[in-house]
Design a protein that fits this description.
single chain; 2 domains; 3-stranded antiparallel sheet; 7 helices; binds zinc ion
Length: 270
């Protein structure tokens, strides 16, 4: 059987993380330009407008990235099936004949839309937080100026500046309460989504060939995934045999977790 290449999306996901990193840098530079000792509503409006511009550019770039790269992961999943079932004799031959069947067509469209929505939520979160921080900075700055002269010389300008910067760098809080920097979070989202898309496309292609089983890949994992390397799964719920499905294994949280690199290769007979 021809060797199935291990999916690796480091290059692409680094590209996406770089888009976020550079937008965040631009926003920080914008906030750094603010004169916090005399921050007026009109200046705040201009600052927020610049930040909106940076974020909408980022949305455009990341949406385009998703549209280009998520389908690639699906194609790699199909290549896996074509090689595993020896429909193709080499990677290049498999790549040539790999095509989205109807189910995969719909799945890829949904995966692209989902991923774009997840990334949009990241920029919306940054937008919301910087807006709130800028509004607070304006009122803090006004209060500072009113109190000046009567209330000693305690400078709150550094606090205001710090609060502005923190609104961008402290990041996203996920469903489990963990805190992520925006660029790290978005990279995790797309990496996870690409692997899921790979596995789903692989499944749909295999089932299209009348194949209902697969074997989980092995690369010497040290986390809980190690308990599942080489394990046989079934690709549809109603396939005979006492094997877990992809979904049921994923639900255990042991394997196919965010960032998990494990895939599976279809086999005709377990
Ligand atoms: Zn894993």
């Amino acid at each position: 059987m021809p060797q199935v290449p291990e999916p690796n999306y480091d290059y692409q996901t680094d590209q996406l993380a770089a888009l976020y990193q550079s937008a965040i840098q631009d926003i920080l530079a914008e906030l750094d330009r603010v004169d916090v000792s005399n921050f007026q509503r009109a200046n705040a409006t201009a600052t927020l407008k610049s930040i909106s511009g940076i974020l909408s550019e980022l949305n455009k770039e990341s949406a385009a990235w998703v549209k280009e790269n998520v389908p690639k992961a699906a194609k790699d999943g199909i290549v896996n099936t074509l090689l595993s079932l020896e429909v193709a004799a080499s990677v290049s031959e498999a790549q040539k004949i790999a095509a989205f069947n109807e189910v995969n067509d719909a799945m890829v469209a949904a995966a692209v839309a989902d991923t774009q929505a997840d990334l949009l939520a990241v920029t919306q979160n940054v937008d919301r937080k910087t807006r709130a921080a800028v509004r607070k900075a304006v009122s803090d700055s006004m209060r500072y100026n009113m109190a000046r002269g009567t209330n000693g010389r305690r400078s709150i300008t550094e606090d205001v500046r710090k609060a502005l910067q923190n609104s961008v760098t402290t990041g996203i809080i996920d469903a489990r309460g963990r805190r992520w920097k925006p660029e790290v979070y978005s990279e995790m989202v797309v990496r996870t989504k690409m692997m899921e898309t790979y596995r789903e496309a692989n499944t749909n292609e295999a089932v299209g060939h009348g194949v209902y089983y697969a074997q989980i890949s092995s690369h010497g994992a040290t986390d809980l995934c190690r308990n599942h390397e080489g394990q046989i799964i079934k690709l549809t719920e109603d396939a005979p045999g006492n094997y877990p499905t992809y979904e049921s294994l994923k639900a255990t949280g042991e394997i196919f977790h965010p960032r998990c690199k494990h895939v599976f290769s279809p086999i005709r007979n377990p």
